[in-house]
Design a protein that fits this description.
By secondary structure, the chain is α/β, with parallel strands linked by helices. The protein is built from 8 helices and 5 strands, in the order βααβαααβαβααβ. Helix 3 packs antiparallel against helix 5.
Length: about 150
């Protein structure tokens, strides 16, 4: 399975150590999934890791920005930026994640409201954005997501 992870999911994995992404963490570590990214996604992560408000969380997790970037480098498959997709995100900073997922027919994992607003359109195109992947595929939409 091919995945595209937005920056917040990456932070959940390696800075916040959110238990909700435990299965995802294991799947990435065991190379059960292919995590696709672009160099601009890595640059965004590097910029976000420089935020002063993340310092305490990184100390808590006993991880440095450099270690998070090294983990990114070890696990993400860097690909060329894709052409713009027909699915437009209201937040231009998130468009790169949508475009990559569409171009590679990958599962886009995000908690970002602007990305999640595209959920129905991406699901119709056999793509789905959700905060946490299910082990056997994307979660079934609940009645509240309809």
């Amino acid at each position: 399975m091919k995945l595209v992870l937005d920056t917040n999911i990456v932070l959940d994995l390696w800075v916040f150590r959110d238990s909700a992404v435990g299965e995802l963490h294991a799947a990435i570590a065991n190379k059960e999934v292919t995590w696709l990214a672009t160099s601009s996604m890595r640059e965004e992560l590097e910029f976000v890791l420089s935020y002063e408000q993340l310092d305490a969380r990184m100390r808590e997790a006993n991880v440095s920005a450099q270690q998070v970037l090294e983990t990114f480098d070890a696990h993400a498959l860097i690909v060329e930026p894709p052409p713009a997709s027909a699915h437009k995100c209201r937040d231009p900073d998130d468009q790169k994640f949508v475009d990559l997922a569409v171009a590679h027919d990958a599962l886009l994992l995000s908690k970002d409201a602007q990305v999640l607003a595209l959920r129905r359109k991406l699901a119709v195109a056999k793509r789905f954005s959700a905060p946490v992947p299910a082990k056997t595929g994307p979660p079934a939409p609940s009645a509240s997501n309809s």
